[in-house]
């Protein structure tokens, strides 16, 4: 229990350093409001769940990739024979032949692997999208619109999942295009590799385009994926903040991957750990940006206010048996006064 503030001690009534900073700097107050919303809505809990579903959905996607590779190799026997010869020349003995037989059996079962992979990927992806939408809705305050029905909801989740996947592939592709090796190859194709400053200009342009596409992507995620109606205008600033932070994080992640894959242990576990960290940080970034958008001054002013709880009126009925103590005393006093009055009246001459 907080002790009462004594009037003679003025220091107890002064606001703390954090409160003074929030009152002085509006941007800091906004950040603190976003952090409070993020913590109250269990942002870390939802980010961990999204990371789990992201890693879980990768396995059926790998199955689909293997099935696509099987169809490509089955349609090109020359390429298949060349790969088999390289495997045998690289790994001699029974081990090389076992790898070739394993590849042949995988190619023969490409149809079943592809069907199972597609079905599992669709199921895992829809679950991932449903959890992502639930997390975003909690950041916006947990409001809900009327249900659209199971089929319409799943179709909407599927469309959103495909669009999000394509946008992510596009942004990652632009980041790869801005790397040093890819930039040199592109400049050699167009014959501009010797122009002074062209590589820097092209890299800056690639990063700018990547930020713009990521800005649109995060704005769409923040505004359209929650289970409520939110305008794009209310999420533009949050989307830009998330896009810039995500671009910086991608550059740092690429440096991390290049540094950890040099050793045997890093080459084995580094990509997996890097993918988990990448998914977790990205999930936290999206959820915090959504909380930042939801706690802006404009959105707080237009946010719906919950109606008060309905008043409950309970009638109070008291039952009294007999006169009771007060009634008996009043009756006795009234009787005494009446008797005294009658006695005086009867004594008159």
From TrEMBL:
Q: What GO cellular component term, any one, is given? A: plasma membrane
Subcellular localization(s) per the UniProt record: Cell membrane
Keyword Cell membrane applies: yes
Sorted alphabetically, which keywords does the UniProt record give? Answer: Cell membrane, Membrane, Transmembrane, Transmembrane helix
Membrane topology (UniProt): Multi-pass membrane protein
**Major subcellular location class:** membrane
User: Per its UniProt entry, which superkingdom is the organism in?
Assistant: Bacteria
Question: Which InterPro entries does the UniProt entry name for this protein?
Answer: IM_pro_YhjD (IPR005274), Virul_fac_BrkB (IPR017039)
One Pfam short name:
Virul_fac_BrkB
* Residues spanning the membrane: 45-73, 111-130, 158-180, 200-223, 235-257, 269-294, 323-342
Q: What is the protein named? A: Inner membrane protein YhjD
**Annotated source species:** Mycobacterium gallinarum
């Amino acid at each position: 229990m907080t002790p009462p503030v004594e009037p003679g001690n003025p220091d107890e009534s002064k606001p703390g350093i954090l409160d003074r900073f929030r009152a002085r700097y509006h941007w800091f107050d906004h950040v603190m409001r976003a952090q409070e919303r993020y913590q109250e809505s269990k942002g870390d809990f939802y980010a961990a769940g999204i990371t789990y579903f992201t890693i879980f959905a990768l396995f059926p996607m790998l199955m689909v990739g293997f099935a696509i590779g099987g169809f490509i190799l089955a349609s090109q026997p020359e390429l298949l024979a060349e790969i088999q010869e390289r495997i045998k020349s690289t790994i001699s003995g029974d081990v090389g032949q076992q790898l070739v037989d394993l590849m042949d059996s995988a190619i023969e079962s490409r149809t079943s692997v592809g069907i199972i992979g597609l079905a599992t990927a669709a199921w895992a992806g829809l679950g991932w999208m449903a959890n992502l939408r639930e997390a975003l809705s909690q950041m916006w305050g947990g409001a809900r619109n009327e249900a659209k029905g199971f089929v319409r909801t799943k179709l909407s989740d599927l469309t959103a999942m495909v669009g999000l996947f394509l946008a992510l592939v596009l942004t990652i592709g632009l980041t790869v295009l801005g790397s040093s090796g890819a930039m040199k190859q592109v400049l050699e194709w167009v014959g501009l590799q010797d122009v002074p400053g062209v590589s820097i200009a092209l890299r800056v342009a690639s990063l700018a385009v990547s930020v713009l596409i990521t800005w649109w992507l995060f704005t769409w995620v923040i505004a359209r994926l929650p289970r409520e109606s939110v305008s794009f205008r209310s999420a533009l600033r949050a989307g830009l903040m998330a896009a810039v932070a995500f671009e910086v994080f991608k550059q740092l992640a690429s440096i991390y991957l290049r540094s950890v894959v040099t050793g045997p242990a890093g080459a084995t576990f580094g990509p997996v750990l890097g993918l988990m960290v990448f998914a977790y940080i990205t999930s936290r970034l999206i959820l915090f940006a959504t909380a930042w958008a939801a706690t802006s001054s404009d959105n707080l002013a237009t946010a719906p206010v919950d109606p008060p709880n309905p008043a409950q009126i309970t009638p109070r009925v008291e039952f009294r048996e007999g006169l009771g103590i007060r009634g008996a005393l009043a009756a006795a006093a009234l009787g005494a006064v009446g008797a005294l009055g009658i006695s005086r009246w009867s004594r008159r001459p």
